[in-house]
Amino acid sequence: MTREEAQTILTQMTTSESLLRHARTVELVMEAYANKLGEDTSKWAITGLLHDADYQAYPDQHPNVIVNLLRERGEDEIAHAISAHYTHWGVPYDTLLDKALLACDELTGFIVACAQIRPQRLEGLEAKSVVKKLGQKSFAASVDRDEVRIGAELFGVDMQEHIAFIIAVLQQNQHELQLQPQKGTQV
């Protein structure tokens, strides 16, 4: 599957700007990790891009619609990773791709939420600040902190280093993601 095909699938089921941005942020982080680990960057990026593709259109069936579509196209490894990106679904984590998606999905969304409340957005955002916000249950309350912890553990990464890696990837793409500092903000 090409990225263009994946983008078409995503936009057929997703119109929400925030969900499209989340898909793109997870895509970028997954691609960067694949590059760092010597994995298939295209496969990892597409997995990140499509992991929530059916969430808006089929919330009660998520992720089964996108998983079935991917299996029909012969994309079994991507489909499995997407079917496993939430631990409560009870799907085993067989590959590094499975573990990476779990580790990157929820945390990437949380880091974007942290950036959005800061006038300087991603500029100067540090891992320790994100860790502190993770401890505040009222902030981004819908983020499952256990998923963040379990994801990092399964992926075998240090939480601080993992957060710093994700921040760096997002900073490199902050203009596209519209997460650059607000005008007039001192950096």
Automatic annotation (TrEMBL):
SUPFAM superfamilies: HD-domain/PDEase-like (SSF109604). Residues 20-97 form the HD domain. InterPro entries: HD_domain (IPR006674). It comes from the Bacteria. Pfam families: HD. This is HD domain-containing protein. It comes from Pontibacter fetidus. The lineage of its organism: Bacteria, Pseudomonadati, Bacteroidota, Cytophagia, Cytophagales.
